[in-house]
Design brief:
Elements (H helix, E strand, L loop, with lengths): L12 E5 L2 E5 L3 E7 L10 E9 L9 E6 L2 E9 L2 E5 L4 E4 L4 E5 L4 E7 L6 E9 L10 E5 L6 E3 L5 E6 L1 E2 L2 E2 L10 E7 L3 E6 L5 E13 L2 E4 L2 E5 L7 E6 L3 E8 L7 E3 L2 E3 L2 H12 L10
Antiparallel strand pairs: 1-21, 2-3, 3-4, 4-11, 5-10, 6-9, 6-11, 7-8, 7-10, 9-12, 13-14, 14-17, 15-16, 17-23, 18-22, 19-20, 19-21, 19-23, 24-25
């Protein structure tokens, strides 16, 4: 594929973040890179978790039934098998290279449980906020097999999978009108570089999960996130990989709305959060989820 897209003034790196080691679900070990303290800075994104282990005790307990309201979850399985079920009777199997995009909306209860007892389990979960007008919409989800994720290879040998948004003329699996998320998996061979145009108002970051990349002369090694500065006049990002590396690149249009969060409920006001807790306790979640 010809590299016809160029970036004339790439963004600088504002900071590089290591993330926090946490346990979630029933004891799954996770590197939480985008934490609650960064929600304003990286609006509309609320959280990014990376899990990667070949030790079954790190992941086997999975994520038993739990609720969500007011946002979307994007689960991307690099390697492994995860069975998901929800309170509306839907279920599916997320396998290596697959993506599940779920809109929790007005509320859903679901579980994500490993369907393997050994081997490597590796992937990401990204939380994407919903605008106030959509927070109580009907829950929805879709599973994408690896073969359904659009991809291309540049002349430099960079392989790009387009989960959301568009890149170099390739439209991704999912589009969202207001937040306009871009979600790319970019695999750069040694010595290669990659450029991606971005609207100036979008917040953006990358996370390296193989090797090491360089952005604006700064090294971003494996298991680190680089937040891109919102530099006036910048038109995108440039990523270089002298020794080779693989990253996810995420960007989106900020909502600039109030964020009120209590665990798995993300609304605009505390009153809405209290209502979410009450509705969950009264069993009003997830009965209308649609695929």
């Amino acid at each position: 594929m010809s590299d016809t897209t160029t970036v004339n003034k790439p963004r600088a790196v504002e900071r590089v973040i290591a993330g926090q080691a946490v346990m979630d679900g029933a004891g799954v070990k996770i590197n939480r890179v985008l934490t609650q303290q960064l929600q304003r800075r990286l609006d509309p994104f609320l959280m990014l978790d990376n899990f990667a282990s070949d030790k079954p005790n790190d992941y086997i307990a999975g994520f038993p039934e739990h609720p969500h309201r007011g946002f979307e979850t994007v689960s991307y399985m690099i390697t492994g098998r995860m069975r998901h079920k929800d309170s509306a009777g839907h279920e599916g199997l997320l396998t290596s290279g697959g993506v599940q995009w779920m809109t929790a909306g007005s509320g859903v209860i679901h579980s994500e449980m490993p369907e393997q007892e050994e081997g490597v389990m590796e992937g990401f979960q990204l939380w994407l906020n919903l605008p106030a007008r959509d927070k109580m919409r009907t829950p929805w989800y879709r599973d994408f097999d690896s073969s359904e994720i659009p991809r291309y290879t540049t002349d430099a040998g960079v392989t790009v999978q387009v989960i959301a948004g568009a890149s170099h003329g390739v439209t991704g699996a999912v589009q969202r009108e207001l937040t306009e998320p871009l979600y790319l998996d970019i695999d750069l061979p040694a010595g290669a570089s990659f450029e991606q145009p971005l609207p100036p108002g979008h917040n953006a970051f990358l996370y390296t999960f193989r090797g090491e990349v360089q952005v604006d002369g700064k090294a971003v090694p494996a298991l680190r996130m680089a937040i891109f500065a919102n530099t006036p006049g910048s038109d995108g990002v440039r990523i270089e990989a002298p020794q080779g590396g693989r990253v996810i690149l995420v960007a989106g249009q900020p909502l600039n709305e109030p964020i009120a969060q209590y665990g798995p409920f993300v609304m605009n006001t505390q009153a809405e959060v209290f209502q979410a807790v009450q509705d969950f306790r009264e069993g009003k979640f997830g009965e209308t989820a649609a695929q």
